């Protein structure tokens, strides 16, 4: 289902250079996605917001359009239904030039490990769904033969499996590896495939968790760093502090790592 673009009249976008570079955002209700969408709309990019029950985004659509003066359209997308991807992409008002996947589901590790249906939902939401969507959209971006970018939000949780989080972590590991492969596939083409591996971010996903303040960022700060990395054409973005932390964690010998509890 495609909800028609809002009928309100738009003020002129601030940066006309981006007026023909629409951004498609998957998981557009996510806090990180919203922050990215605001930052990109402020640069004059039209927005195509995709989510489940997308009519819940009607107020956001009007807010983006009024605040940033860009066209905003809404598109229904459940990332666990790959059979709908091609039709959804074909229904977009114009082909996007930047695509962001911000869908994700963490759930509770013990419940995920105990219930195969929950685990499958976590795998499908974080790995198989976004990976298959990225495959389809990368093919289309490549066929357009113009400068474009595909940004996949994975997680440092995928860098090494931990007892506390391995269902979600392994799904993110799969997505990280998939994006790496896509990046190599299109390396000689004008398509940048970018992987973002955030550490802790204060969002709905982490609400109620006791996160260390010094290691936790906001969606807005992360969005600003992602856009800086995009501007520089960086293929991978990890916060420098998390790069150090995960560099250490991934180098701990397995015999020691398996006994650690964190
Ligand atoms: N927060 C963190 O600390 C952190 C750290 C590392 C990576 N990440 C990743 O960052 C991304 C954004 O997460 P967030 O922190 O902003 O959390 P969030 O606010 O919970 O966003 C997750 C989004 O995924 C959407 N989603 C879930 N299942 C879906 C499905 N089947 N089809 C389409 N959309 C679906 C949700 O939509 P509904 O509204 O329909 O549920 C929600 O908007 C995720 O990939 C997450 O794994 C987050």
Automatic annotation (TrEMBL):
Per UniProt, which keywords does this protein have?
A: NADP, Oxidoreductase
Organism equals Seohaeicola saemankumensis
Q: What is this protein called?
A: SDR family oxidoreductase
Q: Which family does this protein fall into? A: Belongs to the short-chain dehydrogenases/reductases (SDR) family.
InterPro entries per the UniProt record, alphabetical: NAD(P)-bd_dom_sf (IPR036291), SDR_fam (IPR002347)
């Amino acid at each position: 289902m495609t909800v028609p673009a809002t009928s309100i009249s738009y003020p002129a976008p601030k940066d006309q250079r981006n007026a023909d570079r629409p951004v498609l955002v998957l998981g557009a209700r996510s806090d990180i996605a919203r922050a990215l969408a605001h930052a990109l709309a402020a640069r004059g990019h039209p927005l195509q917001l995709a989510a489940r029950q997308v009519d819940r985004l009607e107020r956001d659509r009007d807010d983006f359009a009024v605040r940033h003066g860009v066209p905003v359209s809404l598109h229904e997308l459940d990332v666990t239904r790959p059979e709908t991807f091609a039709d959804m992409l074909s229904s977009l008002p114009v082909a996007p030039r930047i695509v962001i996947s911000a869908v994700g589901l963490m759930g509770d590790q013990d419940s995920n490990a105990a219930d195969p249906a929950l685990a499958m939902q976590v795998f499908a939401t974080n790995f198989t769904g976004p990976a298959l969507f990225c495959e389809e959209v990368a093919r289309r971006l490549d066929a357009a033969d113009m400068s474009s970018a595909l940004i996949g939000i994975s997680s440092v949780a995928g860098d090494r499996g931990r007892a506390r989080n391995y269902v979600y972590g392994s799904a993110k590991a799969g997505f990280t590896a998939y994006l790496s492969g896509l990046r190599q596939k299109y390396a000689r083409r004008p398509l940048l495939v970018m992987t973002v591996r955030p550490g802790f971010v204060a969002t709905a996903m982490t609400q109620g968790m006791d996160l260390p303040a010094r290691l936790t960022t906001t969606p807005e700060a992360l969005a600003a760093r992602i856009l800086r990395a995009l501007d520089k054409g960086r293929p991978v973005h990890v916060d420098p502090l998390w790069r150090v932390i995960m560099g250490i964690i991934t180098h701990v010998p397995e015999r020691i790592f398996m006994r650690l509890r964190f």
